[in-house]
Design goal:
By secondary structure, this protein is mostly helical. The protein has ten helices and no strands. The protein has a single domain, classed as Tetracycline Repressor, domain 2 (Orthogonal Bundle), CATH 1.10.357.10.
Length: about 210
């Protein structure tokens, strides 16, 4: 392995360790030592790549955002021709992911920003960029579904996208509070039913068109 490849691998391990340790312990409780231990990297190796925990946090959020974009951008529901089905398919996928250790399915950005929004402006800005970008991705399908099924509705696709993320982040919080992944999935079940209501049920003619 070349030196540049080894350096890139070390940096990747630090980013992955920050992602997982911060989701498990929170940003404030996570130390550089914790991250180094999880990554199998010396403290000297850490500071070779990052000047501070905050700098690593910003980079970890950017990496998490890229990973999430690839995951949801290539998810099977994206192939569905009907935008309403894609909106609901997104919720179904998020619900299916709520299992096992909460640190492995919760959002790094949501976990981080709850603690640091008033104290670490660079981290908050990174979280805002990533989370709002994700909402914009959802809003494209929500708007297309609105035009088909609820063109006269007074709500905006963007606001519904933010509501979806608020429900999702809230579900993560209550999974932590109650130690119940089942409760998290039930919360998203209610979100799905709400979306079915505001987007309306496809008419029989629309159903025929979708299946032809």
């Amino acid at each position: 392995m070349t030196r540049s490849n080894k350096s890139a691998e070390t940096r990747a391990r630090l980013l992955e360790a920050a992602r997982d340790v911060i989701r498990a312990k929170g940003y404030t409780a996570t130390t550089v030592d914790d991250i180094c231990s999880a990554a199998g990297v010396t403290k000297g190796g850490f500071f070779h790549h990052f000047a501070s925990k905050e700098q690593l946090g910003v980079a970890a959020i950017a990496a998490f955002d890229t990973m999430a974009g690839a995951l949801f951008g290539s998810a099977p529901y994206q192939m569905l021709p009907d935008p309403r089905d894609r909106v609901l398919g997104y919720v179904d996928l998020r619900a299916s992911m709520i299992q096992g250790d909460v640190a492995l399915f919760s959002c790094l950005m949501g976990t981080t920003v709850q603690e640091i929004y008033a104290t670490h402006p660079e981290l908050r800005a990174a979280c805002e960029e990533g989370m709002s970008g994700h909402v914009a991705m959802l809003a494209r399908d929500i708007e297309a579904a609105k035009q088909l099924y609820a063109p006269d509705a007074h709500w905006s696709a963007e606001n519904v996208g933010y509501f979806m993320q608020a429900a999702l982040q809230g579900a993560f919080i209550f999974v932590k509070v109650k130690q119940s992944t089942e409760l998290g999935r039930e919360c998203l079940g209610h979100l799905r039913r709400y979306l079915e209501t505001i987007l309306g049920q496809p008419s029989s003619d629309q159903t025929k068109e979708r299946t032809q």
